Amino acid sequence: MQSVSAATQDSSKKRRVGHFTAPFDARFPFTNQTRNCYQNYLDYYRCLKIMKEKGKDVQKCEWYHKVFKSLCPTSWINQWDEQRKQGIFPGKI
Amino acid sequence: MPYATQLSLQEATGPAMEEVVFLHDHVLLLTFLMSLVILLFATTAITATVTHNDPTEEVEQLEAAWTAAPIMILILTALPSVRSLYLMEEVFDPYVTIKATGHQWYWNYEYTDGTNVSFDSYMIQTQDLPNSAPRLLEVDHRMVMPANLQTRIVVTAEDVLHSWAIPSLGIKVDAVPGRLNQLPLATSRTGVFFGQCSEICGANHSFMPIVVEAVPLNYFEQWLTTEQ
Predict the structure, then answer these.
(1) CB atoms within 10 A of CB B167
(2) What is the nearest CA distance from A61 to chain B, expressed in angstroms?
(3) Which residues of A touch B114 (CB under 8 A)?
(4) Angstrom distance (rounded) from CA B150 to CA B187
(5) pTM of the model
(6) Which of B158, B148, B142 is nearest to B202 (CA)?
(7) B127-144: per-residue pLDDT in tens?
């Protein structure tokens, strides 16, 4: 019988260069990943804001972008983007 | 996939379903053993001749036995059950994340790991079915995933409760509006696997099936490129 962990080992080996998906995050170990998606969305825009203020490279924020893009449904992202544009986004960025 | 007059579980096509089959067989074995013991006691009680009948008699040993035996049975059932439960829920290191969103009454799938693939998956009506396709189960756009690799499925809904389920892969996740539920999805072979929405979600609840096509990795990559 192939165990779940055996399938996992395979996936690390076979991953093509440049391919990314959100990895396991110890802050969100359970089935519910709502907070994982939201937190990474917040962190990305917080990171952008801080890096721009300090005049640093915003490339470092890309990690958060990749994670939330991987986890959040596109409709959620679009909705939050729209709310940020209108200045009614409830999160603290 | 299921067949007519089928009695037991569907054939396991992934590690999660293998866990389910293992637990089912294990609990069934315990049930058979218990039934056998009860049958033995019942037969003895019915056929025995009563030699004494004193209700005040002390029966500590018997009481100890009928307390200890259920405890043992419960432990033997609970431990493998918890083991299977945790193994089936843990997402370790997925190769790709696929998002399934339930709508009234179709599923939408998204592949956004460096790609922007998104499509709706509607049931094919009976009159439009291609030859040998199962009625009320085939869809116009199947969800494609790599076989033999762990995939993460993130399930949510846009309107009401739905549930994303594939019995032969041993997976069932509630699709809740405003919440993301993840589960590992892995197949041990290539193939086409069928499921149905498993949470009553309105008039066409029975007509929003789920079809997963597990293909070798290189075909999956190729498919992803062409879908973009």
Answers:
(1) 21
(2) 16
(3) 18-20, 66
(4) 8
(5) 0.87
(6) B158
(7) 999 888 899 999 999 999
